[in-house]
Specification:
This protein is an alpha/beta fold. It is 26% helix and 22% strand.
Length: 253
């Protein structure tokens, strides 16, 4: 089933789409007896991933029989793990992850991603690149008809060392494909730039439709002062998209 981005359901239907996608992703991929280290990402859809895994842990099938560790990608996912009664670990303790679930800002037809709209891109990429299986869960608006930068037009998030932000900003703006680039601001909640969990700044850079995300990622990483980009290349194995009518579209690598 193909849905247009303009077919935005009301908020209740949208939340239900996220929940259905997250529950099915967990049901079809998570095995508490086999997956002992589980990555839990950030975002509104992953709320339901943590809820579902918490339900499994509390079920008679798993209760008291197995124990798995959940690795967060930031403060929000840490709180999700704790609030759902799951055991919290860290990537420093468990550098090899069995399976990870996370959302995305946009997913293209080859399962390349834009992530980092919530500001957790470095830790999200650390966990997703440390896992044997990375499963994306999202609502249908996040599925690009072809290229990244089509639905998500806020720009590619780029985490930078604060002292280098002016230099990096100038370098990005000088790139031929750059439409605009700005340091992300805290808005009404904070005066000045957003500061990540790693005490860095984020630059949001719009490159229009990205036909070669791999090359763009490599070009950005070469800039002095760039810590990581929100282009997640070749690490998602599967994506679940929930539609407003309750149907699920599954994309495989």
């Amino acid at each position: 089933m193909s849905l247009e981005v303009t077919d935005i359901p009301d908020l209740q239907l949208l939340e239900e789409a996220k929940k259905v996608a997250a529950f099915r992703a967990v049901d079809e991929n998570f095995d508490g007896k086999r997956h002992r280290v589980v990555g839990i990402g950030s975002g509104s859809t992953v709320v339901y991933v943590a809820q579902r895994i918490g339900e499994y842990q509390a079920s008679e099938e798993y209760k008291g029989k197995v124990e798995f560790i959940c690795i967060p990608t930031g403060f929000q996912s840490q709180e999700l793990i704790i609030s759902n009664g799951l055991r919290l670990g860290s990537i420093e303790e468990y550098p090899v992850v069995d399976i990870a679930f996370d959302g995305a800002d946009e997913v293209d037809e080859e399962l390349q991603l834009i992530k980092g709209g919530g500001g957790c891109l470095l830790r999200e990429k650390l966990v997703s690149s440390s896992t044997k299986e990375f499963v994306v869960v999202a609502d249908f608006r996040k599925k690009s008809p072809k290229y990244l930068g089509t639905n998500w037009t806020k720009g590619v998030p780029i985490e930078v060392v604060p002292v280098a932000y002016a230099r990096v900003l100038a370098d990005i703006r000088a790139m031929s494909t750059c439409v605009r680039a700005e340091v992300r601001q805290g808005g009404v909640s904070k005066a000045g730039p957003v500061v990540t969990d790693n005490n860095n700044f984020i630059i949001d850079a719009d490159f229009g439709q990205i036909q070669d995300p791999r090359k763009l990622h490599q070009d950005l990483k070469m800039l002095v002062g760039v810590v990581e980009t929100g282009l997640f290349i070749d690490n998602a194995s599967k994506a679940y998209f929930g539609a407003a009518d309750g149907s699920i579209e599954v994309s495989l690598k």
